[in-house]
Amino acid sequence: MGEAVQVIAYGDISDGKVDLLQLGKQNMLNVGKVISGYAVDILTWLEYLPEWFPGAQFKRDAKSIRIVANKTQWLPYNMVKSRAALGTAPPSFTLAGLEAMEASTDGDLDDEIISGAAMTLFGAGSDTIAGTLCTFILAMLLHPEVQAKARAEIDRIVGEDRLPTVAMRDSTPYLNAVLLETLRWHNVLPTGIPHRLVQDDVYEGNLIPAGTMVFVNAWGILHDQRHFPDPMTFNPDRYLDSTTSNGNGDSTEGIIDPWQVGFGYGRRICQGIPVARTGLWITMAMILSSFDVRPKVDPVTKKPIILEAKWTGTATSFPEPFVCDIVPRSSGYADRIREAVAEDERAVKAEAS
């Protein structure tokens, strides 16, 4: 999925010299570190400490974070820009921005705006989707009965001779519920993306001055027992009541929609929701239809390794590293996956030629 988001943002510009995915991942880890906060955010006088002074680690961090951020913003952008000048840049968000900038007469677009928007799309999209898929894999390990039920639903629709397609999504209410519960059970952004007030506001009689940084407690909303009984339990069935789900992956009246909570609000709502919705569903469907997700067996005791749900504690929260086995359900399923990958590679080469 990270590669898919990269292609949307920049096109297929990999040259084998720079690992853009790793660069984007490091940048998002840095973003999480910054959002999590430093003492200087509260004790603002600390900004006057020299860089070498004890307690001024934030200044040393800022240097390395800025280097990675600048590289993430400008390296892929300049790669696309160079290819665009030669007429060889593949279609992408960045190329569309460059073409719009060239055609613009009012100067409302420039390199800074386009490169910044592309970096946001690339970083936010690849990191959050990858984290959600890790949560999904962990949930399938901890709840094999959910995995079996979702797989049976896919098998009834797809059969054994083909792979799932996005066109089948509306016919998989249980898998759609699994996706919703994955987003709810452990949101990748538990405190959302911080916003800053542009004017004074009053909430329940309390003045919030302009300039205040505001966080949405997405974790609290998605674990509110009034809306989600037994919130720590992974339970897709909570979405299948006719009053709470329309069967195509959107929750309706009677329950809070994880898509609306986890992807921002208002003008700043994530514009990549359609990409995330489609990408997550098809990846989950492919995994369940073709592979068996199993606990790894301890080589000494010969027993399955018991896992616990543990999470990183930064602003972007992922499952801590865990071990498992993901194996093809049969040689036939493995062959179909290989054929699909080969077909995709041929299509990419044909488009590039």
Q: Overall 3D geometry? A: globular
Compute the number of helices: 11
Q: What structural category do the secondary elements indicate?
A: mainly alpha
The biggest sheet amounts to:
2 strands, antiparallel
Strand content: 5-15%
> What's the domain count?
2
Provide the CATH topology of the largest domain.
Cytochrome p450
User: Ranges with pLDDT <50 over ≥5 residues?
Assistant: 242-249
Portion of residues within helices: 40-55%
Number of strands: 6
Distance between the termini: 23 Å
Highest CATH level, the class of the largest domain: Mainly Alpha
Q: What CATH architecture of the largest domain would you give?
A: Orthogonal Bundle
What string gives the helices and strands in order?
HHHHHHHEEEEHHHEEH
Identify the CATH homologous superfamily of the largest domain: Cytochrome P450
Mean pLDDT rating: 85
Q: Which radius of gyration do the C-alpha atoms yield?
A: 23 Å
